[in-house]
Amino acid sequence: MKIIVCIKQVPNTTEIKIDPVTGTLNREGAVSIMNPDDKVGLEFALCLKDAHQAHITVVSMGPPQAKKVLYEALAMGADRAILLTDRLFAGSDSLATSLTLAGLLKTLEYDLIITGRQAIDGDTAQVGPQIAEHLGIPQISYVNSLKFEDGYFIAVRQFEDRYQTLKATAPLLVTILGDAAKPRSLHVGRLIEATETESVELKGASDIIVDTTKLGLKGSPTKVKSTWNKVVDKQKNLLEVEPREAVKAIIDTMKKRHII
Length: 260
Ligand SMILES: Cc1cc2nc3c(=O)[nH]c(=O)nc-3n(C[C@H](O)[C@H](O)[C@H](O)COP(=O)(O)OP(=O)(O)OC[C@H]3O[C@@H](n4cnc5c(N)ncnc54)[C@H](O)[C@@H]3O)c2cc1C
Known about the structure:
The protein is α/β, with parallel strands linked by helices. 28% of the residues lie in helices and 25% in strands.
């Protein structure tokens, strides 16, 4: 079984800064981590490897420093790592990102592609399903559990109020929920060893099957018109009354707002 896991390096915060001029994400100064949903996706792949001797390739699109999360994935048990890095990819929206990743996947063999449901910085949850569309393969999103039995992938999807079990044959893409499993812990020594003994392959636009006019900021149909920070304006109500009356007014207001 050949599995590909898509891993995005993201800033370790949900409060990402946005460049007010270009409207794109500004990652400078932010500590970067493996996107949490993708770490769970990798755990799913590792469990399938434990049970079925699967081969796992991890792929990421990002700047050269995104190598860090791929070494982490190798240290956790992935077999091959590829970083898509090229100036042509800069400023990609979700469509350009998924086209780029799909362009690489077209050059690889796979039975199963795993993505996280969503990335904690971009938050769109579009990239996984878009990759499946570009490749013309079936997809199962919102996956909470996954196993392989008698030639079928059996996935349980989780919704707010119900579960749904689906089975599918390869090739298949699944998007994994972030709370679906606890990723295995990583020994620091293993990470150092992976950095010293394993390698991350670098690939650019000329190595993948893609229309280069559809890449990066120029190829992205989404244009950020303007961005601003949300300011929470607390409702104020000033009463100039005696203390006893003030207590009553406060209690009445809290009751009205269902606080007590
Ligand atoms: C006009 C425009 C310009 C932008 N420019 C930039 C920019 O310059 N820099 C920037 O960081 N962001 C930029 N963005 C944000 C960028 O679109 C998204 O971060 C990116 O396309 C992925 O979308 P997402 O984060 O919502 O991923 P989601 O769809 O939420 O991710 C779902 C899953 O897809 C996979 N995935 C997503 N992205 C990657 C990746 N890069 N590599 C591997 N797997 C991946 C992961 O498995 C992830 O869990 C820009 C957005 C727009 C609209």
